[in-house]
Amino acid sequence: MKLLFPPIFAVSLALFLAFLFFGLSVCGAERPFWNDFPRIVQIGDPEIAIQANANVVLSGIADDPCWGTFSQHDRVLGGKARLERLHRADIKVLSWFEGFGTTQENIVQLRKNSDGSWVRNQRDPSHLQVFNSHWGWQSFDGTGEMRWIGISNYFLDDPAVRPWTRTDSRYGCPSMIYPDGQIAEGYVGIERNADPDRLFGPEVDPRTSRVLDAGCSKDVLGRVFFEYDYNREVNRIGPATKQPRGPLTGLLKIEDAPLGPPDPGFTPEEWKVVRKAGYTGLFSAGKDTACPIWIEYLKASLRQALDAGIDGLWVDNFSPWDSFNAFPNTKAFGEWSVAGFRKYLAQESETIGNDVLRDIDLETFDVRAYLRNRCKEWGGTPENLNDGRWRDPRWQDDPIWLAYLIYKRKTGTTALTNYYETIKKMAADAGKPDFLVSGNDIPVYSLGWVRGNLDMVSTELNWGWGLTSGPRGFLPPPLGSYVPVYRLGREHAKSRFVNVWMYVPEDQIGKPNIAKVLYYQGLANHALPMPQIGKVTAGNLETDAGFYDFVRRVEPVFKDRRPLEGKIGIYYSSSSQLLEMLPGGFREHASQPHSFAFWGWGTALCNRQVPWKAVPEWKLSLEVLAELDLLILPNVEVIGEAELKILQRWVIGGGRLIVTGNFGKRLGEDGNFALRTDRESLIFTDRNALRMLGEGEILAQDDDIGFAYYLKDKERSETMLVLEKQLGRIADEKTLFPYVVPGEGFPSGVDLTLHRDERRLFLDISNTRIDLASDTIAPSGPVRLTLLLPEEWTGKEFDVELLTPDAETKIVSSRKEGGRFELELSNVPVYCSVVLGVEDR
Known about the structure:
Helix content is about 30%, strand content about 20%. By secondary structure, the protein is an alpha/beta fold. The strands form 9 sheets. It has an 8-stranded parallel beta sheet with strand order 2-3-4-14-15-16-17-18. Strands 1-34-37-30-29-19 form a 6-stranded antiparallel beta sheet. The chain is globular, with a radius of gyration of 28 Å. The chain starts with a strand and ends with a strand.
């Protein structure tokens, strides 16, 4: 159908300019594949990937979770045929790498010939034949030679695995060293010239490797923190013997494996099963981000992946996880970090306070000893990492601990930036300028580490327990929503898309409708799934294939669109979240002031159909604020002087702020998170008051209504009324609904999002009204709304097109009235996009 608008319009010039910016910013022929609706799956079988309509696959080829180039080459050899099949089908192939996550050591079964030489791989004589490893140890037959293969073999130049060690001319790198320049050779307690077969065999505890001691994360007691993987078949208890079934030969017996906080993607209950004590043939240790040798190893490993033909990486732990952790006293203190912090204290002495450093010898200072002494002074037992004094609120006023938090953030950002830039340069030099670097854990556990130095967020996500979502988590739809995660995630990377491993509880695995709800809500918000087909993520092969088929069909129409994010911003203060981290973990995991408030405001505005944009602290600028009418700063306790001046200037010029809680109580990183002494400056205001500042306004509230909306899910109806009242005091209709005005009786659980390219508007409607027990989606019923059209469309004809996977969705009526487009849809079972395209005349 075609409609002609009269020369009357109701959309501002600022809105037109915003539309134009979004359109121009995505056009152009040279767009990388990862910014063009990537349909990613994780599956080993190429034929299933093809059936799923994927165009990108994480397929286990050339993977390297930092386990040495020998093990990586084993994956190359085993995956060559799969890679060729995927490339013939025009499917890009990704490998799994670890960022500053873990290194690995794995027990393997090798064999020797009668002449004493090693049995070699028939496909590649440079490589030993691996007959068994940790993952299949239940089939170990007791013969051959057992050997620990991993990052230590690589750096210690194990003769058995050459040329796949650091001395190789193509895949080699410098020696691992300590901060004082000493080479990390051999194993603690073993003479350096010991027989190599003895060094890497089961007689030597591989955890004593000096490579790990020099380059890995350590706890506050100075010990490398190890995590253990257990082969479940080996550790299964026999009913008659009450002992593990085994075989146990060569494995490490772990009596007291520390559980620690769950990895992202695991619940505490799942983690206890995965990380229980037992016999292990695989362990890992986190990398110290301050150690430069890990970047040198990355170059060697990446070169092999590029040689194999890989098109990109899924990088696990592109985050603070294994180098800092949710319990910093377990992982935040490698040798390089301890040494680097001494230099940081010297450089930042004026910021931290010369009086604080007066009695510190910066040549020998060990922050671990300082923190242990402080714990003891407060009545704790430092050797007990679970002692309550490690979570004492007084840590938030300890200037050395605060300085260490900031130092770790800065070194983490530097390390991940180097990691990213190294990959991009090497890939471009190898003829792959669109090589993908995607990263996990973001933004639910980024803490400011990642600041745009990434192509695309590809993160594990579940609606239950989470690091910054608390013990209860986000909640499933329709009550809960991942949309705030998607919007914040996009701000951490370069792509307009976010990729998500949409985990569901066991009783939801394989059900089609929960997958459809999550998938299409994601599509409406530029987030696409990463199905592990038929496993722990939502969906099944049929559902995945159907969704990706729809994405493939609409891509020619959607290809240049960008979200229109509205006139309201929600400020993300990674510094305020970082402040909550004490040596023993979150000050209060179940009640995180800024994080919960951010998720709550984002969820509430989505539920109210109010568009909004995430504004992380490192992106705050007058240019960003110029696109906004209102900025919400929820429980932002930490804010730097530069950011404060930007806000003051913007408000004086007409901007509007909502500030809540202890806003601005502390200085930013440039002030070492110290308590602010100048809270009488103009930006601050009386609590629970609205006042003018120049041409703008500031509404200050003691309590944060977003925090209440997130945490008190049973009271959301009442909380929404309070939230609407607060917004009504400072925001007009054009701020709340600049593009789409929901009609009277608009159904709850139905989302509206608007997108724009150079000549089209896209109104996406997604239905999340699911009953999880029955896996049924309640009909939306009639959907009525008013769309405000761009000023530049005045007097032009435009087409209206309906794109939907649901045949029953129909346009019941539409009409023009001035600059408005009134629309009614019959029903939206899951999703539709109403596309308005102006003709070029």
